[in-house]
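Review this:
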Amino acid sequence: MDYGFNASTIYTLSGDGHEQFKIDNKTGVITTTDDESVLDLDREERDRYDLEVIVSDRDGVDDLSLNSSVSLTIVLRDVNDNYPQFTKDEYYYVIWENTPSGYEIDVINATDNDSGNNAIISFAIHSGADGYFKINRNNGVLSVADTLDREYKAKYVITISASDHGVPILTTYIEMVIELLDVNDNQPTFTQNAYRAQQEEGVATGTSVLRVTAVDSDAGSNGQVKYTANTTDFTINSVTGELTTHAALDFEDTGGRVYKFDVFAVDNGEPSHTASTLVTITVTDINDNPPVFAGTYECTIDKLMVESDILVIVKATDDDSTTNAELVYSLDNDDFSVDDSGVITLAKDAADITCVQPEFDSRCVVICVTAHDGGEPSLYASTNVFVWRGGSNGRLEFSQAEYRGRVLEEQNPPVYVLTVSVSNDDTVDFHITSHVEEFTINKSTGDIYTAMKLNRELKDWYSFSVSASDIDGIKYDAYSLVNILVNDINDNNPIFDRPSYRGEVYERDYSTSPTAVLTVVAIDADTGPNAEIMYSITVGHNGEFYIDLNGTIYAVGNVDREEVPLYTLTVTATDNGVQPQSSTVSVDIIVTDINDNTPTFTQRHYNGSVEENVQYYIEIVHVIATDADEGTNADVYYTIVSGDDGNFEINLYSGIIAPTTNAVIDYETKSHYILRVLVEDAGFHALRNVTSVHIEVIDVNDNAPYFIGEPYDAEVPVTADLNSTVFTVVAEDADSGENGRIIYTMKGSEYFIIGRDTGEIRVIKVLIGGVGTHELTINASDNGKPPLSTTTMVTITVREVNIYAPECDPSNYTAEVSENVPDGTYVATVTATDRDSANKSVWEINGSGIVYYEIIQGNDEGFFEIHINSGEIRTNGTIDRELEAFVYLVVSAYDGGLPSKQDNATIDITLLDVNDNAPSVYPSEMHSCIYHDSPIGTFVVDVNATDPDMIGDITYSLSPTVESVRDMFEIDELSGVITTDTNFTVDMTDMEYLLTVLVKDGNPVHSDYGCVTIEIRYNDLNLHSPKFSQDEYSTVVPEYLPIGAVLDLDIMAIDIDDVDDGAVTYSLAYEGNERGIFEIDPMSANISTCYLLDPYEDTPSYNLTVIATDAGERPKSSTVPVVIVVSKVTRPTDPECYNKVRSHVNLFYHHKTRNWAFKLSFILKILLAMVLLLLLLLLLLLLLLLLCFRSKESLSEDPFPPMLPPRPVKYDNDKVVSGKETRGYNVYTLPHEINQTINNSVPAIPAATHSVPNYLVMREPDTEYLDLDNMQAETVPNYLVMNDGIELGAEYSDMDNMEEYGDYLQPSTGQESHEYLDLRQSQQNYMNTGNEYNEVFLSKDVLDFISQIQLENHESAAE
């Protein structure tokens, strides 16, 4: 083996295409050329290069160099640089809409010029299919995925993709169009369940009645509809659906008044579909029939007849109905009259009637009678009544001028109805003179019978005339009117107005809120109870529905569409006849869906897997959710809400999860994904659900092994043992499993071998003949399919044995350096020698005599570096003494021998300080509080600053602070302590002052700032609020408590502060005492009344709040509730007695509430009670005498209403004059003073029409007063409004309170006394025109109540 220059080798390449590559002439590493103008590698053009590698020694520079060569074959691996290409430029398909799921439409093909995985193609649908089509990802088979419906969607524009499996994945997109051909799968649907129309009779044939419409959602001829009808009375246009008359319509034809028939709609599909609907046409009457008389009439008149006697009864008929058949009769002769029943009577006595015919003619007169109907225009008919002269024999007389009878319908004739008779002859013949077929009369007896079976539903009333003729011919004929009412029997079933019903109801629980759904209507042709209909639901529900008497069906229970989507109810209509008749109808109630069901996933969670690096479409997981609702409420949409890292997408409609087109799925980065998938329905208030999807990433062999720690150099002594380990190479593979398991192989050495699995390079041959450098080529290959590999070079030098170690002299060094010196400043030099350097051969071969230097300890901050060959130590970058003040380095001097030997030296370096750091205030923001009465020099805060430098003293100042604030404080320049420098006042409390502190060090000057916020607080010595002796006070008072009465409460509050701050005063809160009825003594806390209490009925209790306030400079207060319960007192009616007792109550209660006597000793209380009792009896006696003397004045001791508190006059009109005295309206004005108003600029108000008491009720002290004449002029909250102006009987109302309290004045009922009742107190309390105020006496019950109070107080005093 050569040495030195003879062993220096160089590598070169040759062969066709070698210019595409280059070889490192020293290492032999082959790479592609750097010359981009030359480089042109394309596997699709050329995939193999056969080259030769030549290696020459002596660097190949002269003829002495030797060389050898080896063949090299380079195979180009494919790079994914070609996109897949579809075999067609466009895809267009037409299929039938009933094409079944799974039907294969076509096979989509695509090609890729790459190879291997780069040429494997996967297909996917990206958009537009809506889940109705799918494509096989491997073979491209396009097929139907779900049931199609052209009526839902007729055309799909679908985007499909073809993606290869290369890295990166390349994808090509193309659009395809799929159109659906129509199939006749929908039947026509009428726009209405049933059609109804009315048509007048008598219209011309071909008259349009109505139009029916049916629609068919199919296309073309499948959606074209033709109409037919199963009737001969009407014609339907087969195209338009228009119904016209085909025959004459006649209302008088009872069988042709209502036409019901079916109309059919048939489409033109094959096979065809048919729908039907019911058409009901009702014929309405027109006035097309004139009245008709049966013939002429004759009658006889004699001189004995008087006014109103009946001559004859005429009768006309009209075949029309309703008003068209209502007849009115008229005559052309004023001597006679006719009523609406056709009864002709004398309008005057017969003796006063002059016959117009000659006396030899037996006829007296011919009357023309005309019947007009009520139609528009009216039709009429006329006939003649021949009136004959009669003798003086008189006329027959019916026993009744009119007969009335009843008969049941549907009875077989003859059925007796009634008997007519005459009162002045026994031998007469009776006849029915009107045209009536339903009845007959026995000519001898006058008995009237039915002649046929009657039907009340066709005619319920008959009116006809009968005549009586004298058989002897002596008396003239008589006439009478017979009215017969046909009574109903229950012979008709109730009939529903339609054959079936349909309604809709939203699903929900109607238990607490019944809701009407629809109303069924049944009609019974009978009358009375026979026509009264009761409805019931007999079949089809479990209590969810209820029907009322009107036929309205209500939802009353829990209606759940998911349980029952359609209710088919059977409704029975039953009449109230003795033998009830009934009928049924079917009612369909469709339950309309509401969005009340959350979508539900078919699995609790889903699992799937996908290979890494996939970017083409591939179905990973199919997430499926169902919704029990229907329609849009059941449509579900899927989204990924988290966990996908942008690598996965889910089809909004189908729930299929696939990689995104730009997915970066890398097993080595993330091997497991947990997606959160949200499903949401399309309801108005969308409901949601969430599930988890676990996706495992499958590793593919996409990572080649790589070596760690390159380049590799190792040395081994020539004396190394066989099988000893020289070096271990380490390669890693980011893949997993077999893809990441590495196998090592080696070429190029006879002395060494590598472990296949471990990478250990071991000695396999004695190294004595192998001294020198060995370059080994190591290959690391994984176990994937196909495997990936990488190579590296390991240089192993076999050396002679190293004998001596280097020696450091001296072994310890010291040095100083300032921290601000520049980079590279010299510090010291370490020196060592190696005696192996004397042996030149060893030195040249293995470097045993060469010494190298390295800092091995103490250079933690990296402040220093050492030259590897010279041992010279210099600074490395910036040196900071504040980080490290002393550095103790350990330097190793080692040789290049094998094994290497070393010696150590120490260097002690002192870092000198410079002022290069600014002081720092910590904390930079401070807050302190002091009291307002703190003396000058009070400590506020201690500002602390630190400086890591050793030089430069820190000083403090307040110079940046605002001067006005700076003057209030002082800071110690050296310690930083801040103290007060002024006296603070109360008005400076609750204020904050901001101090800015400047901190500086030495030279050069560095500084920092701190902020101090100082709050001045009030030093409050008043620490406690007053505390009441009880949590609540309460008392009971009578309804008629006098003004000024003190309540028995004993309220007391104590403040434990010192004398000044602990003094307590009392007040009443506004709330609860808005009208100022009560007041409180601020010192004693005694509560008394300012006004009379409201009536018990208006205010049975009062809730007051007492406030106790101390006398602190900043007072504190507390509150306590006070409840005053009013006891009901019945007022007697005797005024005199009432005045006596009222005075008694006033005095007694006054003394009781003062309660001062009970504070004396036990004996004094007894004596005082006796004295008070004697005084009370004397006072009562005096009052009784006084009241008896003044009983005529009837004025209460306490004025009523009470005097209002005085207030300042506000307007000129706000004054009245009574004599010479001017006063504000804080009193009650008497009636005679009402218009005596003074105004300097406005004329006096005119006098009122009536004397009206002019006074107002004031609820609050600040309320404005207006007199009744002017109250409309101002908008004032509390005044009396006169509803009807100033007039007798007008009512005055207190608008603020009248509805709640019944507080208003009302005049009496029209009497001149003008008495007004004040309803606040009693209906016995009135003000009369004598201007007297009378109060009601207390009843005996009240007196008993007072006596009981007295007794209790005496007992208390005795105790």
User: Anything to note?
Assistant: The chain has seven helices and 101 strands. Helices lie at 840-846, 963-966, 1059-1062, 1135-1154, 1162-1189, 1298-1301, 1340-1358. The mean pLDDT is 82. The longest helix spans residues 1162-1189.
